[in-house]
TrEMBL record:
The lineage of its organism: Bacteria, Pseudomonadati, Pseudomonadota, Gammaproteobacteria, Enterobacterales. This is Radical SAM protein. It comes from Ewingella americana.
């Protein structure tokens, strides 16, 4: 290994800037932009099956929910045992950045044991990313009942803003007084009017801009592409989230496949790569079982990475229309790499040094070098990920 990496070096690592839809090197994209990039954050629900009763009109998951009675029944009598709470806290320690998914109003009313868990551990967990009704239903809970780590994101629909303009401004001001500037504020355009033809939304953005760090405007939420317009800087160009692939399948259902480069979901004792797959809590689609061995940063990296490759192979086997780069990517990546669980080396491009998990790997003996993260256990370097020899 060469010199140990300095703080200045970590800011010079050439993480690729190209997008999935335009990259000419899918293998390079995986190593630089996907691989272990899900290790940056975990979204958490204390419930066995995620439930939200806010009833937001703009909810993009409204067609994916299990029947309300089934969701409630799966969580009936649920309590947080000391064993599970220990596991939760260990996961929080590994990831550092944790965001609550739960409907705090529902939990306060129906699951007092879970609400007590949030009272004990709120400072380790970010508040939910509030949308429309959820903001009004839950803001007093995070102001008066719970002390949480932060409020990271608020997403509001154009229609809701037009109805509750002044109240929303007031509520956001109260949240900022307790939790500081809100990092991300997102406006969902639900009408046919684009932002440039929407003076009321522009007026609202101007009204709250001092309360937030970054403003995004998302259009076409009901479509298969989701436009995101960043407004925090001078660049007003519309960009598209190109990591989703939708395909109509038998029975009129819609299959959704995505590049799994974003955060991971912990639904009680199982981890999932996508929100959609976490809703029905199918253990066959879980990428990590919290009830198994004691979590460590190293084991979390290798086990979730192995399951990501397995998920890509599953995607490739399910996709019917294969003349596209999504199938090419899932098939190529899923069948080009294998994971070594007895690794002592992580290549630098696979894991961004800004992620909190890096500090946890260092506690487990890994040292950050320019080539990557190496634990000197007396063996030659053995990478967490290895190309399959064909």
């Amino acid at each position: 290994m060469s010199d140990i990496m300095t703080d200045m070096d970590t800011r010079k690592i050439p993480f690729a800037e190209d997008r999935f839809s335009t990259t000419e090197n899918l293998l390079g994209f995986f190593l630089f932009r996907d691989s272990l990039h899900h290790m940056g954050e975990v979204s958490f629900s204390a419930m066995k099956t995620y439930y939200c009763g806010a009833g937001c009109k703009m909810c993009y998951l409204k067609d994916d929910w299990l029947p309300r009675g089934e969701m409630i029944a799966r969580n009936e009598g649920l309590k947080i045992s000391p064993f599970i709470e220990h596991k939760f806290r260990k996961i929080f320690e590994i990831f550092g950045t944790v965001e609550c998914l739960d409907d705090l109003r529902f939990i306060k009313k129906t699951h007092p044991d879970l609400f007590d868990f949030y009272k004990r551990n709120g400072k380790l967990i970010g508040a939910p990313s509030f949308t429309d009704n959820a903001l009004m239903q839950q803001y007093r809970i995070v102001l008066d009942d719970l002390d949480m780590k932060r409020v990271f994101q608020i997403s509001l629909s154009e229609e809701f803003i037009n109805k509750r303009f002044d109240k929303i401004v007031e509520v956001m001001g109260l949240l900022v007084q307790k939790y500081g500037i809100i990092p991300v504020f997102k406006v969902i355009i639900t009408s046919e009017n684009r932002l440039e033809h929407n003076p009321e939304i522009r007026r609202f953005i101007d009204k709250v801009r001092h309360l937030v760090d970054k403003v995004e405007v998302q259009e076409n939420i009901e479509q298969e592409t989701r436009g995101i317009n960043g407004l925090s800087g001078d660049n007003g160009d519309l960009t598209w989230d190109d990591t989703y692939y939708f395909e109509n399948i038998e029975g009129g259902n819609r299959g959704m496949y995505r590049v799994l480069q974003n955060f991971i979901f912990l639904i009680h004792d199982r981890m999932y790569f996508t929100f959609e797959e976490s809703i029905d809590a199918d253990p066959k689609k879980a990428c990590y079982n919290l009830l198994m061995d004691e979590p460590s940063a190293a084991s979390m990296c290798s086990q979730t990475l192995a399951n990501k490759l397995a998920t890509y192979r599953r995607y490739a086997s399910e996709i019917q229309f294969r003349d596209n780069r999504y199938f090419e990517y899932f098939n190529l990546i899923g069948n080009s790499f294998k994971v070594n669980h007895d690794f002592n080396f992580i290549p630098a491009p696979a894991l961004e040094p800004r992620f909190h998990v890096v500090s946890q790997l260092q506690k487990e003996g890994f040292v950050m070098y320019k080539e990557g993260y190496f634990r000197n256990d007396g063996r030659p370097a053995k990478s967490i990920i290895e190309a399959i020899q064909k």
